């Protein structure tokens, strides 16, 4: 079988040795929307799925055609790659005829391997989007004014409704809708919503770029009369807070551009577009909406059939032409947000007088779908919170001024069902007021909303605490995927802070297929860069924070590196290299002193834990401790990354500059921050970790620094961490690299403060913003954050499970599981760009069993613990002398063995 990115094909294979093999076409540029690609040269990828061991691709042949009929005749009129000798099965760049707007493309692939030649795969395809500004023939429409129902003070507008009717006199062959609805939209045709996406489109800085969505509506647009309808919500376009224009960027009133492009069976075409023939109103049932405060809905104001043919819109206003937002129009290649899971309450506490508190048992982001029956005009209020106070009431202080409240006014016509459209909340608990009748659990459904990303990783171990932390991490990560990585889903913030994600995004990639998500975010960062090179702390820059530090904007480089490492897509580095280089020069020119130190930092080791839980009780964590050591260490590390990037992207002329600058900075760093007592800076755990992990410490002092780090943890911290968001990114891997994976394991399984286990012990179902999240001042105390994950998830997969890419996006995999503490088994898997990787090991006092699965067209270097080589058996046979296994050597009680693709079961004696 062959899978193209987002498109599935089946393949039968001819060779008898290949008889059980399928080629799976994996990607065609994006996963979720193969009918709106605006990339001139899409990337094609595939997977080989076979049980035959040591399968290696030798060549491939791709055909791309303008019709299925031509492709069936093996005619690649758009591109015939011929047979290409290559082991590459990922990111093959289309190199055929130039593609034009709306071109339909169909493709298939065959592969040649050392086990035989495949047949052609089944057909997959994609359709090009609108590649030129002139392809948009309509006009932007909206209402650039307030209406009586709008709340200007709170930044909450009533939703705007638009409609148009049309009559098609010919038989329709194909109909495609292209929509830009800002800030958020829902599209209807003949009363039915198009698509299952919510909170669309993905947010951007609309002065820089605007995402459009594409829908194939051929099944619903036929000859005859139709009605188009669109509802617009505020989203990030009309800012949730208007009172601080110096801080908060706002873009104006909601607006839209749409065109329905129709091809008739007689070969003619027609475009229905937005213009002033559309009608609109703000006098609908959605009285107010924004992300922070919620949605108000009055069912008595519903206009039934508003998006159907024949609706009387005589009282509606003529749509107005409005100024376009200014940014370039781009197809949304990252996935849409969707309702990904429904959750029922685990408990409902009756408070009297129609008031209830629902407990969903899990902190998550989304909203509640409600059933209710009552009198016309009755108002139901739903308030959302992450936790309860000591009296069992909602605790909302940590929401700051976010109201996190939805209201629904009943029609009074039987059982009514409602859920909001243009808001979301971060919550576990919901207070429902003025509810009539008994509140049954199935009358309230929690709707978990995040980007439509496949979960590609699994992890389970013999330690239940490790498993629960992993589960909490999954829920927290998913909750904060909102078209961009936000810091938290509940309070009046929800911003895409760069500093939260430099290494945690790396760990997230082992859980979610988030490549397109983070590719989109890299573009947000690039477009937020100022002309002089400055990169903001938040991107898109909805908050005007350009504080000029290293560790937050440096995330730009870390994310690019992660994406290249995990996906092998060199174009990511090619595209962003100039902007990254520009920022590096900007920071050096502006903030490097004569001693070679980067003097500017904004946050220090943000949110490091108070020494004791009591010391932090009631204390506001929003305090900055700038550190020139952190900014200099990070800049050095980024110089080494840029040196590597320069070679990868063909900018070899830059390498000498970066290498020379790094060498000079290393000397300056040690001259300034190193102490003869074998520590750095203020002798904090973070200061020493950075010097160790980044390789700033001199080789002769490396062992002493490692011991200093261990001493801080074991003796000074009584076996605990003391790192904030900076140090935690390098903690677990540093300890493992210095041979102390056992100490990393102790940190991972602690249940006393400060630790991830402490959060679990105190009822957390996600990851807290603060190590002392149960006692800190609520002004800054989110219970659903990801920044304190640091490199924990990377450590789970790469070091506990032993799944790590060593070369070219898992073409070579290093599998070196750490057998630590009381762990008796780890069972993990990861669906890489090359295929499924599995690692399941079981350890006893005298034996070790290990089941591994390596995808075709990849190889692995296993580090197998064993007392001696003859005791290592696979499938009941010793590997010694077996040509399937290339024994590379032994070290510290394990043997390095190179294997090809396939499934294996090893058993050894310890």
TrEMBL record:
Q: From which residue to which does any coiled coil extend?
A: none
The Gene Ontology terms for molecular function here are: alpha-L-rhamnosidase activity
UniProt-listed Enzyme Commission number(s): 3.2.1.40
> Which GO biological process entries does UniProt record here?
carbohydrate metabolic process
Signal peptide (residue range): 1-19
State the reactions this protein catalyses.
Hydrolysis of terminal non-reducing alpha-L-rhamnose residues in alpha-L-rhamnosides
Which segments constitute the Alpha-L-rhamnosidase C-terminal domain? 802-874
List, for all copies, the residue spans of the domain called Alpha-L-rhamnosidase concanavalin-like.
351-450
Classification via InterPro entries: 6-hairpin_glycosidase_sf, 6hp_glycosidase-like_sf, Alpha_rhamnosid, Bac_rhamnosid6H, Bac_rhamnosid_C, Bac_rhamnosid_N, Ig-like_fold, Rhamnosid_concanavalin
What EC class is this?
A: hydrolase
Q: Kindly state which keywords UniProt assigns to this record, in alphabetical order.
A: Hydrolase, Signal
| Residues annotated as domain Bacterial alpha-L-rhamnosidase N-terminal | 170-340
Q: Which residues form the Alpha-L-rhamnosidase six-hairpin glycosidase domain?
A: 455-799
Can you say what this protein is called?
alpha-L-rhamnosidase
Q: Report the source organism.
A: Sphingobacterium alkalisoli
Show the taxonomic lineage. Answer: Bacteria, Pseudomonadati, Bacteroidota, Sphingobacteriia, Sphingobacteriales
